[in-house]
Amino acid sequence: MKRHPIVVFFVLGLVLSWACLIPLVLASHGKMELPLPAERLLILGAYGPFVAALVATLAAGGVDGLRHLLGRFVRWRAGLHWYVIAMVLPVVPLLLHLAFGGKPPLFLAMDPETGKVVATNPWAQVLPILYLQIVKSKAFADELAWRGFLLPRLQRNTNAALAAFGMAAAWCLFQSPLVFIKSAGSPLVAWLFLAVDLFSTSIIYTWIFNNTRGSLLPVVAFNLSFGACTLF
Fold first, then answer.
1. pTM over 0.90
2. Cβ–Cβ < 8 Å for 207, 193
3. Which of 58, 43, 49 is nearest to 15 (CA)?
4. Do residues 150 and 170 lie in contact, with contact meaning Cβ atoms separated by under 8 Å?
5. Angle at Cα 205 formed by Cα 135 and Cα 190, nearest 5°?
6. What pLDDT is stored for residue 2 in this prediction?
7. What whole-number distance in Å separates Cα of residue 65 and Cα of residue 50?
8. Mean pLDDT of all residues belonging to the chain
9. Among 230, 226, 174, 175, which residue's Cα sits nearest to residue 205?
10. Could you give the CA distance from residue 147 to residue 180 in angstroms, rounded to a whole number?
């Protein structure tokens, strides 16, 4: 285990993640009943890489290795402009969409006086969405596993571009059961969309991580902003 932390990460992470995701696939096809609500299984499955990264780091480097990994969250002196880039970059597609005549997002809420569902001001949802992303998002766990643990190890033996593609391939592997959920449509089409999404964002994550001295805070900021813009 000490000599092969990446192997430990993959084996343990896949076991933990797929143990939660595969039941979702089977349940969607009527093959079994879920032991837990689907949303809870999705959350538990998403934390598989996080737990695996902690165990693999502890096995390979002991307490010092774990301290080094967690210490990436306190490397805050990464340059203010990188925090701005991380937060603003995901907003650009939304701004371009609006600039070229696209419709703003539609949010619905129930009027407490009339009991009717009415449209609310989308811009008033920005701060609540950011708050929910910070409180409920798994961004910190994701970045500890993928950028904190895996990316530096991949870059020891290859360049940043190949490491980013290797990271995306691993990302796809961990989430691959989701493309077989019945409501996802064609597994091939769903997998292609997943691959394009993960490969493209992996390049951006790697670019930010490498230019901020391996700090996890800017990539967490990008993760949170990306998630908020996706909801918005």
1. no
2. no
3. 49
4. yes
5. 80
6. 67
7. 15
8. 87
9. 226
10. 27
| Residue with token string 């340059």 | 79
Which residues in 34-43 are b (16+ Cβ under 10 Å) and which e? eeeeeeebee
Give the closest residue to 167 by CA, choosing from 199, 195, 135: 199
Q: Are 190 and 182 in contact (CB under 8 A)?
A: no
Distance CA 31, CA 83 (A): 46
Contact assessment for residue 144 and residue 223, using Cβ atoms and an 8 Å cutoff: no
- Is 184's pLDDT higher than 70? no
Distance CA 201, CA 224 (A): 13
Residue 68 has pLDDT above 80, yes or no: yes
Residue 63 reports pLDDT greater than 80: yes
Q: Is 182 in contact with 46 (CB distance < 8 Å)? A: no
For residue 18 the two structure tokens come to 């797929």
Alpha-carbon gap, residue 154 to 204, rounded angstroms: 16
CA distance 149 to 5: 9
Tens of pLDDT, residue by residue over 90-143, are 989 888 988 898 887 777 777 777 777 777 777 777 777 777 777 677 889 999
Question: Is 96 buried (19+), middle (13-18) or exposed (0-12) by CB count in 10 A?
Answer: exposed
